[in-house]
# Entry
Amino acid sequence: MLPMLDLNFVRDHLPLIEEKLRQRGLDPAETLKDFALIDARRRQAITQLETLQARRNRASEEIARLKKDKQDATAQIAETKELREKIQKLEETVQQEDAALRQRLATIPNLPHASVPVGATAEANVEVRRWGQPPQFDFAPLPHWELGERLGILDLERASKLAGARFAVYWELGAKLERALANFMLDLHTREHGYTEVLPPYLVNSDSMYGTGQLPKFAGDLFRVPHGEKDLWLIPTAEVPVTNLYRDEVLDGARLPISLTAYTPCFRSEAGSYGKDVRGIIRQHQFQKVELVKFAHPDTSYDELEKLTQHAETVLQKLGLHYRVVALSTGDLGFSSAKTYDLEVWLPGQQLFREISSCSNFEAFQARRANIRFRPAGKGKAEFAHTLNGSGLAVGRTWLAILENYQQKDGTVALPQALQPYLGAERITPRPL
# Structure
């Protein structure tokens, strides 16, 4: 498995790496630790190893010559034996230093793109644009957890009985709305935006998690499933299996960009989020999502990021949901991302904007780790592709946004016109829970 950042690049641009880490709000000394020292020891060991290997080769040639001339080669044979033992020890040293260096590289996050707003926290995020207007009510709008319970379509109490906190059971039109949203999104992305639909496994191996950057850093946020001698992992997002479809492959550059979409459940232990969003279905251990994934040429990946973001926005526009687009600051970027736009939908029942999609360009960060390359037309040498992904959208958060934005004074919820053919209904009315 390859490191997330190229070793030579890190070695030759340490001041730049340190500055980018500071922009992310990180301490370069803590993140890089003894990178330079390990690298120096590794290179010294390699130099010594190559010197001894050259001496061994010369000694072997001398032994062959002496034996051909029927002369005594005892001293040279003894020397090669001694050299072989020293070489073996140095090879072990190089392997150890190489492993330590890769471990250090694996802790270095991606470098923010030059266009990313610089700031250590989410407070430095920059709003790019807004679409639509928030709905106006002549009554106090309710949050989705109250609406869902009153309508008899969201059952958190029975979900807790089945699996514990942070799970949900959907009933009748609540369940159908979830399914309708997924079908609507998939139809939109495949028919209008040109994505190819994929249905991947929901369990993946450790190599797949490593390839997209979830391992080793975020192991505590994942659900691990011991399986024989190796672990499997419940996917935290379809990004993981879909991106890894091309792991260790060389793509035809003429095929780029490749655009894929997948609808899957997502599983997250949310280890560091207890006490946050405890009401409703904002932060669940299991939720469903339609994911958009692109494999792009490095020269056009930022154009593809704009397109992918617009594709996710189209879902909100067709559903008539007020939202804004926010460019994340350097300090708020995900570990693997070089640039991210968040789409935040307006929730009148809570009087706030809430993230409903993150659209990111990872440049070659994931591709290097997963060894995803492409061969440009007319060139013999393969290059690392750029990978991108975004939620198109998070289905549960779209579900609750519809409840809160389309709630009526009589306690019903009107359904957006775009969804009515999928549901065979125009509104959700109360039912016994």
Remarks:
- The first helix runs from residue 7 to 12.
- The domain at 7-105 is CATH 1.10.287 (Helix Hairpins).
- The CA atoms of residues 74 and 96 lie 34 Å apart.
